[in-house]
From TrEMBL:
It comes from Capsella rubella. Residues 116-135 are annotated as: Disordered. GO terms for molecular function: DNA binding. Keywords: DNA-binding, Nucleus, Transcription, Transcription regulation. The lineage of its organism: Eukaryota, Viridiplantae, Streptophyta, Embryophyta, Tracheophyta. This is TF-B3 domain-containing protein.
Length: 135
């Protein structure tokens, strides 16, 4: 995409009856893209977590398939929630979830775990390193 172009985007309302296992991408969206969609895409949620999903074309329509159910479960999507998708032009979609209250929500946040001192060694600079034992 040329610099200055607006990133392609679309929205959808989540309905579990139709979108729990796969997700239909609106044809009006992908028909106007300057190039073909990738076979695999990365979905990035507002919590920083990412999901790899397969994109499948079937009967002239494109779906997020394998991996989509994990995205739904990890984000605890509920009927009637509003999703927005912003495509980077290559293979990544930034996905925002708007709950029933109409506000953007952070879900499936990446959890950062501190490494305890007994699992690391420190040098004089205060940086921590993982111990490696050579056999």
């Amino acid at each position: 995409m040329a610099s200055g172009d607006v990133l392609p985007r679309f929205f959808s309302v989540f309905l579990s009856q139709y979108s729990s296992d796969s997700f239909l991408i609106p044809s009006s969206y992908y028909e106007h893209l300057p190039r073909r969609l990738p076979k695999n895409a990365i979905l990035m949620g507002t919590g920083g977590k990412i999901w790899k999903v397969a994109m499948k074309s079937q009967r002239g329509q494109v779906y997020f398939e394998e991996g989509w159910a994990n995205f739904v479960a990890d984000n605890e999507l509920k009927d009637g929630e509003f999703l927005t998708f912003v495509f980077d032009g290559y293979n990544r979609y930034e996905v925002s979830i708007y709950g029933h209250g109409g506000c953007k929500e952070t879900r499936a946040a990446i959890e950062v775990e501190d490494i305890s001192d007994d699992e690391t060694e420190s040098d004089n600079s205060g940086e921590s390193f993982v111990s490696v034992t050579h056999v």
